């Protein structure tokens, strides 16, 4: 399963807010074996949201959109998702009933709170108020981290891929000195390799088989100068 993550908010683009939602979602999706192909930040603009959602919906198995839900002037994510599918926003009776069960009457909420894309599947917000929605394979979640996490967990079983296994090896050599070994490694084993330099080079070896990942890691250990354990 291939997926894209779209985070919405001007505050992300100007650096006022750290994009922890994207990091968390990518981690959870990876745990479920889902390959995240794109992570994109878009402004609070209906046209930009619609354009990106439309493109990614055509390209990937699922799109997770987070942020910009609610009744305020800059909460336009539902408008953008609806536009991507050529749908209208309309009062969703299931969402309204769920909020009523939580003790919210129509007088307590702005009317737009329950306005969702026509024909969508609403998602209850167990940690907040603004409902989410599923439109075909696009999942729209709140931007408040506690609300986003709770809502994602309610649909997590709908995201399934091939689980992978990762082994890391810390090598005390320049990254440039490892290039030939990486080529040999990938020729000898069915793995993907990432290298992340810092004080040492962290070599990340990923495979669909735990045994294959460990065999490849041992191959690297035998041929490299390793960081000494303290």
Number of helical runs? 8
List how many beta strands DSSP finds: 11
Rg calculated over all Cα atoms: 22 Å
Tertiary shape: elongated
Summarize the amount of helix as a percent range: 25-40%
Poorly predicted runs are: none
Spatial sequence of strands, sheet with the most strands: 2-1-3-8-7-6
Q: H/E series, N to C?
A: EHHEHEHEHEEEEHEHEEH
Strand content: 15-25%
Overall mean confidence score, pLDDT: 93
Q: Major beta sheet, specifics? A: 6 strands, mixed
Structural class comes to: alpha/beta
Through-space gap between termini: 40 Å
InterPro entries: CinA (IPR050101), FLAD1_M (IPR056596), MoaB/Mog-like_dom_sf (IPR036425), MoaB/Mog_dom (IPR001453)
Domain MoaB/Mog: 4-162
Protein name: Competence/damage-inducible protein A
Pfam families: FLAD1_M (PF24102), MoCF_biosynth (PF00994)
Word description of this protein:
Residues 4-162 form the MoaB/Mog domain. This is Competence/damage-inducible protein A. Pfam families: FLAD1_M, MoCF_biosynth. The protein has 230 residues and is α/β, with parallel strands linked by helices. The protein contains 8 helices and 11 strands. It has helices at 10-13, 20-31, 46-59, 77-84, 93-101, 145-155, 179-188, 210-222; strands at residues 2-8, 35-42, 62-66, 89-91, 115-117, 121-123, 132-135, 138-141, 165-171, 192-197, 201-207. Strand 7 and strand 8 (138-141) form a beta hairpin. Helix 2 packs parallel to helix 6 (145-155) and helix 3 (46-59) crosses helix 4. The mean pLDDT is 93.
């Amino acid at each position: 399963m291939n997926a894209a993550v779209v985070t919405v908010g001007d505050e992300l683009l100007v650096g006022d807010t750290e994009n922890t939602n994207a990091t968390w979602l990518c981690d959870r999706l990876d745990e479920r074996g889902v390959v995240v192909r794109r992570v994109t930040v878009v402004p609070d603009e209906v046209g930009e949201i619609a354009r990106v959602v439309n493109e990614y919906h055509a390209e990937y198995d699922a799109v997770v959109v987070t942020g910009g839900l609610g009744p305020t002037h800059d909460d336009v994510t539902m408008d953008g998702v609806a536009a991507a599918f050529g749908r209208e926003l309309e009062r969703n009776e299931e969402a309204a009933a769920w909020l009523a069960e939580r003790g919210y009457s129509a007088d307590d909420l702005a009317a737009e709170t329950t306005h969702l894309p026509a024909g969508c599947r609403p998602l209850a917000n167990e940690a907040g108020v603004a409902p989410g929605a599923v439109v075909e394979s696009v999942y729209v979640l709140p931007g408040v981290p506690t609300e986003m996490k709770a809502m994602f967990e309610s649909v997590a079983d709908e995201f399934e891929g091939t689980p992978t296994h990762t082994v890391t090896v810390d090598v005390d050599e320049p990254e440039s000195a490892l290039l030939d070994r990486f080529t040999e490694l990938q020729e000898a084993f069915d793995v993907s390799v990432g290298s992340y330099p810092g004080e040492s080079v962290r070599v990340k070896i990923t495979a669909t088989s735990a045994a294959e990942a460990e065999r490849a890691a041992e191959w690297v250990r035998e041929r490299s100068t390793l960081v000494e354990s303290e």
